[in-house]
Amino acid sequence: MKKIINACLIMFSISASAQTQLAVPDTLVGTNFALNMHKDSVQFFPTGNISHTYAFNQYKYLGPTLIFNKGDNINISVTNQIGDTTTVHWHGLHVAAANDGGPHTPIMPNATWNPQFMVMDNAATYWYHPHTHKKTAKQAIKGAAGLIIVRDAQEAALTLPRKYGVDDFPVIVQCQQYDSVNQAMSLGMEDSTIMVNGARANNGYSVYGNFPAQVVRMRLLNASGERSFNFGFTGNKSFYQIASDGGLLNAPISTTRVRLSPGERAEILIDLSGMNGQNIYLMSYASEIPMGVQGGPTMPMPPGSPPMDSPLNGIDFNIFKINVVAPTSNPVTTIPSTLVTNTPYQTSQAAITRTINMTAINMMSMDGPFYFNGQLFDMMRIDYHIPMNNIEIWTLSNQTMVAHPFHIHGVQFYVLDRDGNAPPANEQGRKDVVLVSPNETVRFIAKFEDFADSLTPYMYHCHVLMHEDDGMMGQYVINPLNTGVKEINGVDNSISIYPNPANGIVNIETSLTDVNSIAVYNALGELVYSENKSGLHQIQLNTNTWSKGMYNIIVNGKGKIQNKKLIVN
Ligand code: C2O
Ligand code: CU
Ligand code: CU
After folding, report:
1. What is the per-residue pLDDT for 520?
2. Looking at ligand 1, which atom is closest to the CA of residue 127?
3. Is residue 373 pLDDT above 90, yes or no?
4. Which residues contact 46 (CB under 8 A, 6 or more apart)?
5. N or C: which end of the chain has fewer CB within 10 A?
6. For residue 100, what is the DSSP state?
7. DSSP assignment, residue 305?
8. What span, in angstroms and rounded, lies between the C-alpha atoms of 37 and 135?
9. CATH code for position 387
10. pLDDT digits over 113-140, tens only?
11. What is the pLDDT of residue 155?
C-alpha cells in the first residue's frame, strides 16, 4: 500500500486529480499462512481526519492475496490485533464449519486462531473477510478483506494468463460512504467513494493500471457493502468471462457486461493485442441496472425513509483506466475454446426442496430489517439440520422491494432457474452468491458433503452487509450419517466434552499439551468461565445456572487454539 501513501502525498501538491497506479497486493504462498488483523489508518481525504482502517499484515487497508493449491493441507494462524472480537471467513471455500470463520468461531482480542484444512475447491477467485456477529459490515468496510486464489491442475493445463500482477490482475472494487469526519460508514446508502484495490478511484482521484497488449486476465471481486456493479469497458469492447464464483465455466463466454453483486467474483479475459499506447476504462454501466437492485436508479422513497441517493446510482461511470503497454515475452494471445466440464446435480437427485422467502416487516421498506421466512437471525437457533450427503434444491423468493445477494457457506451451488427460466450462461457454473431481484424466485441445487458437525453451524445470508448484520441470516448444520460415526470437524479431535449436550455437570478434557487456559464463551462471544493454569488438561463445570444454548469452549495451548461447541440444555 506504499503506492497509496505516495498518492496521498502527491494529492497535496496536485489539486486537480490524483492518479495512483493500481496496487497489486503481495501474495502469500505455501502451506503455512500467517495473517495479522490490525488497526491502522489512511489519509484517504486531502483535508480533515485520517480514516481509521483495519488491515492484514503489512497493509494499511485490505490484505495480501493468499495463493492456495488444491489438495494442499494448509495451516493458517490469524492473530487479532484490532482490539475487538473478530472472525475471519474464507468466502467460497468448502471447509468444515469449525474452520469456516463464521460468527461461532470468534477470535478474542490478542488471540490467535488456527484453522487447518485441505483445499478442496476448484481453481477460482475467493476472498476472506470478517464475519463477526452483528459487526461484519463495520469490520469489512474498514478494510479487513483480501483475495484468495486457488490453483489446480485443470486450470494449469489451460493456456490462460496466470502471471500475477503481470497478465493476471486482482481487481477488488468497493463502494464506500465516508462520514463528515472521514470515517467509513457501515450503513451507508449514499455510498459514492469507489475504491480499487484499496485506492480511491473517483471524485478527483483516479487509478490506472499498465496492462500489456495481449490477453489479460482480471479477477473481479465486488467487496462492497451493498452496491452491484455492471462491469464493462469503454465503447462496449467485448471480453470473455471464464470463471464464476467457485470455478471455471465450461467455456469462455463472449460478452460486453458482467454484473456482480456484493460478494460475487468473476474472472474475465480481455484481448488488448495491438492496442499498445491506447487506453480503455473498466466501467460500471449502472444505467442498465434495474431499479430495485442497489446501484440502479434511486427508488422514489416513502416519506420518512433514510436517504439512499448516491450520485452513482443509475449512471455509467469509470472505475479505472487501463494504459496498454508493450506486450510481455511469451504473451497469451488466444482465448481457449473450452475450459472445464461442470456437472450440475440433477433435480431428480434432490432429497428435499427448502423454500426461503425474503421478507420485510413493512413490505415497502427499502432499508430493512429483512428476514428469511419471517425470522431474524438467532445464533442459538439452527434453521436446518441437513443429513450428510444430501443434494438439495433451495428456492429463494424475494418478496421485498430491493434485491438481495444470497450467499451460503460450505458449498458451491448451481443455479437451476430464475423465475423458471434457465440462468444465463455465465451463471451456469459454480457459484456461492446469487442476486435475487425484487419479486424474483431463484432456485439452486447443492450437495452438502464431506463435513458433518452437528454442533457448529454454517451460515447463509444476504451479502448486503447491513442486511446480514440486521438479521438476514440463517444457519444450518450437517448431521453425521449415523450417530456414533466420528464427526469430521477438523479442529476438535483433541478436545472431548461429556456429556454434550449437558445439563448440570460437564467434563472438558483435552489431549493438547502445554495448555495454559480453558475458556467458555456464550454464543454472543461473552466470557462465561475461564481457568488459567499451565498444564491444564481436565476441568469439570456445573452448567446449572447457565442459560440454555450453544457455548464455545476454547482451549489455548502453546501457540495454538482449539475450539469445540458445548450445548447446554
Ligand atoms: Cu462473504 Cu458469509 O460471507
Ligand atoms: Cu461466505
Ligand atoms: Cu439483503
Report:
1. 87
2. 1
3. yes
4. 8, 11, 12, 15
5. C
6. S
7. P
8. 15
9. 2.60.40.420
10. 999 999 999 999 999 999 999 999 999 9
11. 98
Taking the CA of 412 as reference, the closest ligand is 2
526: domain range?
495-568
Ligand 2: centre distance to CA 53 (Å) = 22
**CATH code assigned at 560:** 2.60.40.2470
Local confidence band at 550 (pLDDT 50, 70, 90 cut-offs): confident
Q: Is 283 in the pocket of ligand 1 (CB under 6 A)?
A: no
Atom in ligand 1 nearest the alpha carbon of residue 92: 1
Q: What is the pLDDT of residue 551?
A: 84
Nearest ligand to the C-alpha atom of residue 127:
1
| Rounded Cα–Cα distance for residues 433 and 263 (Å) | 7
Q: In the 8-state DSSP scheme, what is residue 64?
A: P
Cis amide prior to 501 (ω within 30 degrees): yes
Cis omega (within 30 of 0) for bond into 115: no
Instruction: Give the global pTM.
Output: 0.84
Q: Contact 297/183 with Cβ under 8 angstroms?
A: no
Q: Which residues are registered as beta bridge partners of 48?
A: none
Q: Is the CB of 138 under 6 A from ligand 1?
A: no
Place of cell 467474483: 265
Atom of ligand 1 at shortest range from CA of 433: 1
The total of structural domains in the chain comes to 2
**What amino acid occupies position 432?**
D
- Return the SS3 of 153: helix
Write out pLDDT tens, residues 510-528: 877 778 788 888 776 677 8
Check whether residue 503 and residue 442 sit in a common domain. Answer: no
Task: Decide: 541 and 509 in contact? Cβ < 8 Å.
Answer: no
- In this predicted structure, what is the pLDDT of residue 241? 98
User: Residue 386: inside a domain, yes or no?
Assistant: yes
CA distances 166 to 97, 169, 196, 386, Å, are 35, 7, 17, 44
Domain membership flag for residue 126: no
Q: Is 263 in the pocket of ligand 1 (CB under 6 A)?
A: yes
Which of 410, 445, 479 lies at the terminal end of a domain, its last residue? Answer: 479
Which ligand is closest in space to the CA of residue 103? 1
Are residues 471 and 370 part of one domain?
A: yes
Calculate how far, in angstroms, residue 120's C-alpha sits from the geometric centre of ligand 3: 29
**Structural domain includes residue 291:** no
pLDDT at 459: 98
Reported as a single tens digit per residue, the pLDDT across 210-249 is 999 999 999 999 999 999 999 999 999 999 999 999 999 9
380/460 same-domain check: yes
C-alpha closest to that of 561 among 96, 116, 82? 116
Q: Are residues 451 and 500 both part of a single domain?
A: no
